[in-house]
Amino acid sequence: METGSNNSLPTQFPVSHKSFSLNIKGNKTDIVICKYDDSFMVMATQIGCMGTILHARKEESVSTDPTFHVAVIFGKRDEPFLVACARQLIEHTSSYGSTRPLVLSLGLKDHSPVINLPSVF
Amino acid sequence: MASEELEENLSELQIGENGEKKPVENDVSEGAVKVSCFTEDLQDVTLHFQIVNFSKQIYAWIGCNSAKLGHLYAAATTRPNNNVSVTSLLGSTSDNTGSSIARRIVLKTGLNVVIACNIPKDSPMLEATAERKLVERLASLGYFRPKEKHSN
């Protein structure tokens, strides 16, 4: 649905996204991935809301290897495996050559690292 | 495996910087999460809107002439009186362009909201227009609380 002149060519929405559902260990997991100009947004939820939101970015310098900065910006700050998950994902996107920061929201029923987090990503 | 399917989806999204954007339908509803995208062309600006409808929360992105994420705000009703509280998650705390939008969306829907907004600061008219368009779409999606009827 777009408003504007009828003579103009239909333009693509500037943000591409993908939305799908997975069954992880019996829990229905809704995942939405969005690509903005300056960042990625990945949302994975089993509880009907965004849950904990993390921000991860890559910091590059000339002489040393790149480092990654990951922080919880909303929600549970005492679950280290959520941070590990974000760290793994930013490293994964970085391996494809992307320097965009990542906003990751995880609304999981079980924060056990053995059971859930490796299955999600 | 679920992780393989996710990796396949991520690679389809072409994370590399040279990836081309794939054409995307304006409304995509796969699974339980519906993603609504639409664009409003105003006289001198183009507003883009993206709404992700979770069952207990709303995520909305408002783009002004660009597809940058912008500042991120979270708003929800909080105890003790169900007053609405807003907090800035990402972005400068001195620029609160999207926070008032987030607050009013919570007042009207009663749901928790996360708003991402890249409207430039000191643009109250643009902010008001963006909020109006977003509210219209949320109303069409059935998110507003029914008004209480007062018996006379």
UniProtKB/TrEMBL annotation, chain A:
Keywords in alphabetical order: Proteasome
GO cellular component, one term: proteasome complex
Matching InterPro entries: Proteasome_assmbl_chp_3, Psm_Assembly_Chaperone
Gene Ontology biological process: proteasome assembly
Pfam family, one: PAC3
Domain of life according to the entry: Eukaryota
Descriptive protein name: Proteasome assembly chaperone 3
Source lineage: Eukaryota, Viridiplantae, Streptophyta, Embryophyta, Tracheophyta
UniProtKB/TrEMBL annotation, chain B:
Pfam families: PAC4
Disordered: region residues: 1-25
GO biological process, any: proteasome assembly
Any one of the GO CC terms: proteasome complex
Keyword annotations from UniProtKB, A to Z: Proteasome
Compositionally biased spans, kind Acidic residues: 1-10
InterPro entries recorded: PAC4
Secretion signal, residue range per the UniProt entry: none
Name of the featured protein: Proteasome assembly chaperone 4
